[in-house]
Write a structure and sequence with these properties.
The structure holds 3 protein chains of 3 kinds. Chain A is mainly α. Helices cover 70% and strands 1% of the residues of chain A. In chain B, strands 1-2 form a two-stranded antiparallel ribbon. In chain B, helix 13 runs antiparallel to helix 14, helix 13 packs antiparallel against helix 17 and helix 15 crosses helix 16. The longest helix of chain B is centred in the N-terminal third of the chain and has 53 residues. Helix content of chain C is 25%, strand content 11%. Chain C has a two-stranded parallel ribbon. Chain C has a two-stranded antiparallel ribbon with strand order 3-5. Chain C has a two-stranded antiparallel sheet with strand order 4-8. The radius of gyration of chain C is 23 Å and the shape is globular. The chains are: A mainly alpha, B mainly alpha, C alpha+beta. At the B-C interface, helix 5, helix 6, helix 7, helix 13 and helix 14 of B face helix 12 of C. Strand 1 of chain A pairs antiparallel with strand 1 of chain C, so a sheet runs across the interface.
Chain lengths: 375, 398, 496
C-alpha cells in the first residue's frame, strides 16, 4: 500500500521527460548523455507503471470505503439529533437537528460519485428530489393520511429537509415528528446497508479481473467512471438546467436542491469534491494519472487531458466558491436565471473530458443513445 | 472547410451539387435548416456511396483475389508434393493451406450476396467434411476403381468431400503435420483434385462479384475448362443501388448487408469460440487445425470491412460513416476490435500447463470483448443504415 | 434513464450453436452464416397490406438475408429466439455419414446432405440443367404410374444417394428441357413475343426427367415428375390458418361461375389424422396438400427423410424393403438397415428446427403505392387472379408461436388445389396455389426468379403464361392486356 501512496512512477517519468526537453535546448550531446543516464535510471521505474488495479485499490481504500462510512456515521448522528429534538422541542435542539441534517446531507452528496454497483437501488430511495411538499403538509397533520407518506418523495433527505426547515417546523406536531423519526431511521438503515454492501464487495472490486464478477479491472473502473458521468449529468440536467431554465424565463428556484436549508451551493461543492476524489484521487494513484500514463491498444495516453481535467475541476471549484458567497442564493436565481450558466458550461466541459478519459482508457462506458440503439 | 471541400472535389460533383442546391433543394427544403439538412444528407449519401465502392474494390475484390492467389499457391505446392513427396514440399503445402484458410476466414464478413446465393462458403470449406465418403473414395482410388478429378468431386453432390477441411484431413493428423512420406499416392491424387476444385470455386467466387467477363484471361480459362457458367457482376448492382438493373433500391441496403454480416460473423464466431473454455482431452478429426487463427482471421475480415481495404492498404470505410454520426462510437468500435483480437491471442498464447480455471477465465474475457464489439457495431448500424440520407425505406416508397 | 451506462453484466448472446445429437466439440471449427438479424426499424405510416405476415410476422428488409430473419413474434420472446437460433444451425448443417461426428448420421440412402442445399438461402430452389448441381438444386423426382401412384420399391422422393458401400435407387436423374409453343405461337394478341427483350425471347420451356440406371426394375409405363422446393418463410403463418376458413373459401369457389373450382382434397384425401393429437386436420402443405400441419409436415418429416437422420419418433430408415433386399442381393450386410436405428437427432433439436422453420419472418410488401403497382393491382383483380391467389387471411390461435395468433396476413393463396392444364400435369393433375408473398425478392435472396411447381417459369411473365386449365381465362385476360398493363401486373406481383 505504501507504494501506491508515494512512489509514483508516472510522476517520475513525467519529470524526467521535462528535464530532457530543457537540456535539449542547450546541448544535444549533453542531452544524449543525460538520456542514456536517465534511461538506465528509469527502466526499473517504468516497469512499475500505475495499473488499473492500483487505481481500483486506491479508490476503494481512500474513496469509496471512507465516504460510505462517513455517510453512515453522519446519518447515525442525524438520527440521534432528530430524536433529541422530538423528545425536547426547542430552538436549540431544532438547530442541532438542522446542523446534523446538513452534515449528513453533505456527506451524502460528497459520496455520490462512489455509489455504484449495488448502491443504485438505495440511492434512489434515499434521495428523491423534489419532495412532495403538499402531501407532506397534509399527511403529517392527519394520521388517517399516513399511507401517503410511503412514497420516496415524502421521505429521504429532501423530505426531512422540508420537515426541518419549512414554516412551522419549530413546533413539530406529534405526527410530524413521527414521520421525521421514521425517515431518519430509514436513512440510518440504508446508509448502513450501503456501507455494509460495499464492505462485502470491496474485495471483488479490488481484485477485479479474476472473473468474480469482473472479468477485467477495466470493467470495475468503468462502473465508477459511468457513475461519475451520471453524477455530472444529474448536476447539469436536474440541479442546474431545470432550476435555471436558461432559455425560458422565469427560472424555477424552488427546484433548487436543498434551498430551504440554504445548502444548495454547499451541496454542489460537496458533489464536485466527490468527483475530484473519484477522478483525481490523491493526485498520484487516481484515474487522471492512469490517463496520463497508460497506453491502450487503440488509444494513446493523454497527459494533457489529465492536466486539463484537474484544471477544469479547479475552475469549477473557483466558480462554486464565488457562488457560495452569495447571501440568498434562492432569491438570486429568481432574479438572475443565468447565475449558474458559467458553472453549467464548466461542468459540461468536465463531462466531455471525462468521456474522453473513458475513451483513452478504453473503458466500457456507453452513452444513453448507444444503449437505446442496442436494446 | 468550404474551400477545402471545393478543392478536394471533382468537377462533376460540384456541378451535381450546384444542381442539387439550385433545383432539388428548394422543392424539399424552403427553410435554412432544411437546406443545411439537405446538404448534409447529400454529402453523407455521397460518402456512403464512396465507402461502398471502396469496400467493394479494396476489401471484397482484394480479399477474394488474395484467396485465389493463396489457393493457386496451394495448387502449385500440391503439384510439387505429388512429384517429390519431400518434407520441404510438405512444408510449402502446409504454408499455402494456412494462407488459403486465413483468406477464406476473412471472407466471412461478406458472406451475403453471391456467397449466400451460391454457398461459396460450403464449396470452399464445408465443415465437417465427410470422412466416411473421403475414405471410401481413397479406397476406390487405391483399388484402381476411381480416377478422381476436380470435375468428379464437384459433380458428385458432396461439398463435404472436398474443400479446405478435406485438404486438412489429408495434410494433418491429430492436429500435427503428417510426414510427407506417410501420404499415400491415392491421398496425393485426391489432394490434387481437391486443390484444383478449390481453385475453380474460388475463381468462380471472384467471378460472381466481378463478373466473368471482368476476370483475367487465365481465370476465365479456368472457369471455361471446368464448364462453369458465366456470371454477371454482383458488384455493379451492389455499388449502383437505385439503378434499374440493380436489385437494391438505395445505398442503405448494401450498407445493411455489410453491417448485418459483420455482426453475424462476431456472433457466430463467439458461439464457437466459447467452446474453447473446455480443455480438450483428445482432438477429433473434425476439429479445427487452429481455432485461434480461424477466430482472428474472421475478426480480421470484420476489421477490414470496418476500416476499409485490407491490412496495410486502407481506404474509405464504414468507420468514416460511423464517425460522421458518432465519433465516440467509432473509436469504441476500433478499440473493441483491437481488444477482441488481443484477448483471443491471449488465450492462444496460454502456456500449455495453464490450469483449466485460468483457461476458462481467459476465454470468458475474450468472449466478453467480442460481445462488446458486437454491441458497438449493432449500435452503429442504424446510425448509418437508417439515416434518411441513405434512404433506408426506398423499397417501401418512403 | 441515465445518460451514461455501462455494460458490465455481459448479456448472453441471443443465438448459440446447437449441437446435434451427441456431439461434443472440444476444439470447434468456427463457422458462421447463421444468426442474421433485422437491421431494425419500421417505416412510418404503412398500410396494413405492407405487413404481409401481420404485425408479428413481418420483417422489413430487402437484403440477401431478408428471408432468414426471425419474425418479431420470435425476436420478442427470448426463449423462442434462442431455440430459433439453435434450429437454424441444424437447417444450415451439412450432415455427414459418421454417426459420431457433428451432424452425423447421414444415409445410408438419402436425397441430400443439407436442408439448405434445396432451400438456398432459405428460399425456393432454382431451375437447374443437371441433377448433379448441389447448391440451390431443389428438385425432387417422383417415380409414379400414369394415375399418380408411386412405383413399388421407391419412396415418394426418389433417392439418388447412398453412403458407401450401399447403392442408391438410381445413379442420377436425367433432366431435359424442351421448348413449348402455345396455340398463339408464343405471342400476345398485339404481336409482341413472349419474353420480349429477354435472352429467351419468344420461348417457353418445360422439363422431362428419367432415371439413369435404376437399381430396381421400373414398370414400362412409369413416369418421372420433378418438383422444386418451396421457400421456408411464412409457412408458420400458413399453419396458423384455421381449417374452417379454408373450407369456407372452398365453398365460396364452388359457387363461382366459370372453371375456378379449387379442390380441397389433397393427395391423401381431404382430412389427415395427425399422429401427435389423433385429430383430423385439413391437408394444406406440399404442392399436393399431402400434409395437414407443420408438426407432421414438410420440415418435420424432411429433416428425417431427406438426409435419413433418425430420431426417437422416426426410428426406421426412410427406405423401402425392396431397396434393402436389393442391397442384400448385391452381397451387402443388411442387418444394420433393418435394425432399430440410433437417435441421430434429439427431440430437442427437432423442436428447435420446428420453431426456427415456423418462426422466420416474411419480408414486407414493397412500393405498393407506386402508380404502376396500383395499376397492376387493378389489372390483377380484373383478370380474377385473386380468385385463387386469395390476398388475405386472418390466422387463428397458434400455440407454437403465440405471436402468430390473430394476424391479418397477405400470402395471396387460397391453399386449394387447382388444375393448371395438361402441360403442367405431373404426379397429380392439380397443385396447391402457391403463395406470392416475397416472390419479388427472390433475386435479392437467391439470385433467380424461377417459379411453378417444376420451376419451368423463369420469371413472373412465364409463370402467368403457364396458367392454363382452370386459369385459362385469367391467362387470356393477361395476354389481351396492353404491354403497359402486363408490365404493371408483373410489377404488382413483384411488390407483394
Amino acid at each position: 500500500m505504501e507504494f501506491h501512496n508515494k512512489d509514483v512512477p508516472g510522476v517520475f517519468l513525467f519529470s524526467g521527460n521535462k528535464i530532457i526537453k530543457q537540456i535539449n535546448r542547450h546541448s544535444t550531446g549533453l542531452a544524449l548523455l543525460v538520456v542514456l543516464f536517465l534511461t538506465g535510471l528509469l527502466v526499473p521505474v517504468c516497469s512499475a507503471e500505475l495499473t488499473t488495479q492500483d487505481v481500483l485499490i486506491s479508490i476503494s481504500d481512500k474513496g469509496t470505503g471512507p465516504n460510505l462510512a462517513k455517510t453512515a456515521n453522519a446519518a447515525a448522528a442525524l438520527s440521534k439529533n432528530v430524536g433529541q429534538f422530538c423528545k425536547d422541542q426547542n430552538s436549540n435542539t431544532l438547530e442541532q437537528a438542522r446542523t446534523a441534517w446538513k452534515t449528513a446531507y453533505l456527506a451524502w452528496r460528497h459520496a455520490e460519485s462512489f455509489m455504484y454497483g449495488p448502491s443504485a437501488r438505495l440511492e434512489k430511495k434515499i434521495n428523491v428530489w423534489p419532495a412532495a411538499t403538499v402531501v407532506l403538509d397534509v399527511a403529517v397533520k392527519d394520521s388517517k393520511l399516513g399511507h401517503m407518506l410511503n412514497t420516496a418523495d415524502t421521505r429521504g433527505f429532501s423530505g426531512l429537509e422540508y420537515l426541518l426547515y419549512a414554516k412551522g417546523s419549530e413546533t413539530a406536531a406529534k405526527a410530524r415528528c413521527s414521520h421525521m423519526l421514521a425517515i431518519t431511521r430509514e436513512i440510518v438503515t440504508d446508509t448502513k446497508e450501503l456501507k455494509t454492501q460495499w464492505e462485502t464487495k470491496t474485495d471483488e472490486f479490488k481484485r477485479a479481473g479474476d472473473g468474480n464478477p469482473f472479468l477485467l479491472p477495466e470493467d470495475a473502473l468503468s462502473l465508477m467512471v459511468a457513475r461519475v458521468l451520471n453524477v455530472t449529468e444529474v448536476l447539469l440536467r436536474d440541479r442546474i438546467a431545470v432550476v435555471s431554465n436558461f432559455f425560458e424565463k422565469p427560472s424555477r428556484p424552488d427546484n433548487l436542491e436543498a434551498w430551504l436549508s440554504r445548502s444548495s451551493v454547499l451541496s454542489l461543492e460537496a458533489t464536485v469534491k466527490g468527483i475530484r476524489q473519484a477522478i483525481v484521487g490523491d493526485g498520484s494513484t487516481g484515474l487522471t494519472t492512469l490517463v496520463a500514463t497508460k497506453d491502450g491498444l487503440y488509444e494513446s495516453k493523454d497527459p494533457k487531458l489529465a492536466r486539463d481535467i484537474k484544471k477544469q475541476l479547479g475552475k469549477i471549484e473557483k466558480t462554486l466558491s464565488k457562488l457560495n458567497k452569495i447571501q440568498d442564493f434562492h432569491a438570486r436565481i429568481k432574479d438572475k436565471p443565468g447565475t449558474l450558466k458559467k458553472l453549467y458550461k464548466q461542468l459540461n466541459t468536465l463531462q466531455e473530458q471525462l468521456v474522453e478519459a473513458a475513451l483513452v482508457l478504453e473503458l466500457d462506458v456507453r452513452s444513453g443513445i448507444e444503449i437505446q440503439l442496442t436494446e | 472547410m468550404k474551400k477545402r471541400f471545393i478543392l478536394w472535389t471533382g468537377r462533376p460533383v460540384i456541378i451535381s451539387l450546384i444542381f442539387f442546391l439550385g433545383l432539388a433543394l428548394p422543392l424539399h427544403a424552403a427553410t435554412e435548416g432544411g437546406i443545411k439538412k439537405g446538404v448534409e444528407d447529400f454529402l453523407f449519401e455521397k460518402k456512403a456511396y464512396t465507402a461502398v465502392e471502396d469496400y467493394t474494390e479494396n476489401t471484397v475484390f482484394k480479399t477474394i483475389e488474395l484467396l485465389v492467389q493463396e489457393i493457386e499457391n496451394l495448387n502449385t505446392a500440391v503439384a510439387g508434393l505429388s512429384k517429390s513427396r519431400t518434407d520441404a514440399d510438405m512444408a510449402k503445402t502446409i504454408e499455402a493451406w494456412k494462407g488459403a484458410m486465413a483468406q477464406f476466414n476473412r471472407h466471412w464478413a461478406f458472406n451475403y450476396g453471391p456467397a449466400a446465393h451460391y454457398d461459396f462458403h460450403k464449396q470452399l470449406a464445408t465443415w465437417p467434411f465427410d470422412k466416411v465418403w473421403v475414405d471410401h473414395y481413397l479406397d476406390e482410388i487405391e483399388k484402381g476403381n476411381l480416377e478422381v478429378t476436380a470435375r468428379f468431386l464437384r459433380k458428385n453432390k458432396h461439398s463435404s468431400t472436398r474443400g479446405l477441411n478435406t485438404a486438412a484431413y489429408l495434410l494433418f493428423r491429430d492436429g500435427k503435420v503428417r510426414p510427407a512420406k506417410k501420404i499415400t499416392p491415392a491421398e496425393l491424387k485426391y489432394l490434387r483434385a481437391v486443390s484444383q476444385a478449390l481453385l475453380i470455386e474460388s475463381v468462380d467466387f471472384e467471378a460472381s462479384w466481378r463478373g466473368t467477363k471482368n476476370l483475367s484471361k487465365e481465370k476465365r480459362k479456368i472457369l471455361k475448362d471446368a464448364g462453369v457458367k458465366k456470371r454477371s457482376s454482383y458488384a455493379v448492382e451492389f455499388t449502383n443501388p437505385g439503378e434499374s438493373d440493380s436489385r437494391y433500391t438505395s445505398i442503405s441496403i448494401p450498407l445493411q448487408e455489410i453491417f448485418q454480416e459483420c455482426t453475424t460473423v462476431i456472433e457466430d464466431m463467439v458461439a464457437g469460440f466459447s467452446e474453447l473454455g473446455q480443455v480438450q482431452e483428445k482432438s477429433a478429426y473434425w476439429d479445427s487445425i487452429d481455432p485461434y487463427a480461424d477466430a482472428l482471421d474472421m475478426l480480421k475480415g470484420v476489421e477490414n470491412s470496418y476500416y476499409g481495404g485490407v491490412d496495410g492498404a486502407r481506404d474509405a470505410s464504414l468507420s468514416d460513416l460511423v464517425a460522421k454520426k458518432n465519433q465516440i462510437l467509432d473509436r469504441r468500435i476500433k478499440a473493441s476490435l483491437a481488444h477482441s483480437m488481443e484477448r483471443i491471442k491471449a488465450v492462444r498464447d496460454l502456456p500449455s500447463g495453464a490450469d483449466a480455471q485460468t483457461r476458462e477465465l481467459m476465454v470468458k474475457i475474450a468472449v466478453s470483448e467480442c460481445e462488446k464489439l458486437f454491441d458497438r457495431i449493432t449500435a452503429a448500424t442504424p446510425l448509418v443504415t437508417a439515416d434518411s440520407a441513405v434512404k433506408p425505406w426506398a423499397a417501401y416508397g418512403r | 434513464m441515465n445518460k451514461w451506462s455501462i455494460l458490465y453484466n455481459h448479456k448472453k448472446m441471443m443465438f448459440q450453436i446447437a449441437l446435434a445429437g451427441a456431439l461434443a466439440l472440444a476444439v470447434p471449427c468456427l463457422q458462421t452464416a447463421y444468426a442474421h438479424r433485422a437491421i431494425g426499424g419500421v417505416p412510418k405510416d404503412l398500410s396494413e397490406e405492407y405487413y404481409t405476415g401481420g404485425k408479428m410476422g413481418t420483417v422489413f428488409s430487402t437484403t440477401s438475408r431478408c428471408m432468414e430473419l426471425p419474425s418479431p413474434a420470435v425476436s420478442a420472446d427470448e426463449d423462442l429466439a434462442e431455440k430459433f437460433g439453435a434450429g437454424e444451425v441444424i437447417f444450415e448443417a451439412d450432415f455427414v455419414t459418421d454417426q459420431d461426428a457433428p451432424f452425423g448420421g447421414l444415409g445410408p440412402i438419402y436425397n441430400n446432405n443439407s436442408c439448405r442445399n434445396c432451400h438456398p438461402n432459405y428460399a425456393r430452389g432454382r431451375r437447374v440443367d443437371s441433377w448433379d448441381e448441389q447448391f440451390g438444386n431443389s428438385y425432387l423426382a417422383f417415380v409414379h404410374t400414369p394415375d399418380g401412384k408411386f412405383v413399388k420399391g421407391v419412396k415418394f422422393m426418389f433417392q439418388t444417394m447412398a453412403s458407401p458401400p450401399y447403392k442408391p435407387l438410381g445413379k442420377t436423374v436425367d433432366l431435359k428441357w424442351h421448348e413449348y409453343v402455345d396455340n398463339h405461337g408464343n405471342k400476345y394478341p398485339d404481336g409482341t413475343p413472349y419474353n420480349k427483350g429477354k435472352e429467351y425471347e419468344g420461348s417457353l420451356i418445360y422439363p422431362t426427367a428419367s432415371i439413369v440406371d435404376p437399381l430396381i426394375e421400373l414398370p414400362a409405363n412409369h413416369k418421372v415428375s420433378i418438383e422444386g422446393t418451396i421457400g421456408i418463410p411464412g409457412t408458420g403463418l400458413l399453419d396458423a390458418i384455421k381449417d374452417e376458413d379454408i373450407i369456407a373459401e372452398y365453398d365460396r369457389q364452388q359457387k363461382l361461375e366459370g372453371p375456378v373450382k379449387g379442390a380441397i382434397k389433397g393427395k391423401h384425401g381431404r382430412w389427415i389424422t395427425e399422429p401427435y393429437d389423433g385429430e383430423k386436420h385439413l391437408g394444406k402443405f406440399t404442392s399436393h396438400n399431402a400434409r395437414a400441419t407443420l408438426q407432421n409436415g414438410p420440415g418435420f418429416n424432411g429433416s428425417w427423410s431427406v438426409p435419413n437422420i433418425t430420431r426417437k419418433d422416426r426410428t426406421k430408415l426412410f427406405a423401402t424393403q425392396e431397396w434393402i433386399d436389393k442391397q442384400g442381393e448385391m452381397g451387402l450386410d443388411t442387418a444394420a438397415l433393418t435394425a432399430h436405428q440410433p437417435e441421430e437427432m434429439t427431440q430437442e433439436d427437432l423442436e428447435n428446427v420446428m420453431i426456427w422453420s415456423r418462426g422466420i419472418g416474411i419480408p414486407a410488401a414493397r412500393n405498393l403505392e407506386s402508380p404502376i403497382v396500383q395499376q397492376g393491382k387493378k389489372m390483377f383483380y380484373e383478370a380474377s387472379c385473386q380468385e385463387c391467389h386469395k390476398p388475405t387471411w386472418t390466422t387463428g390461435k397458434d400455440k407454437y408461436i403465440p405471436g402468430f395468433s390473430d394476424q391479418k396476413i397477405w400470402p395471396y393463396t387460397d391453399l386449394l388445389m387447382h388444375d393448371m392444364g395438361k402441360m403442367s400435369h405431373g404426379l397429380t393433375k392439380t397443385f396447391r396455389t402457391p403463395p406470392l408473398w416475397a416472390r419479388g425478392l427472390m433475386k435479392n435472396v437467391v439470385d433467380h426468379s424461377d417459379m411453378w411447381h417444376d420451376l419451368r417459369a423463369r420469371d413472373f411473365e412465364e409463370a402467368i403464361l403457364w396458367h392454363m386449365g382452370e386459369a385459362e381465362e385469367s391467362r387470356e385476360a393477361f395476354r389481351n392486356m396492353s404491354a403497359e398493363d402486363r408490365k404493371a401486373v408483373i410489377e404488382f406481383c413483384k411488390a407483394l
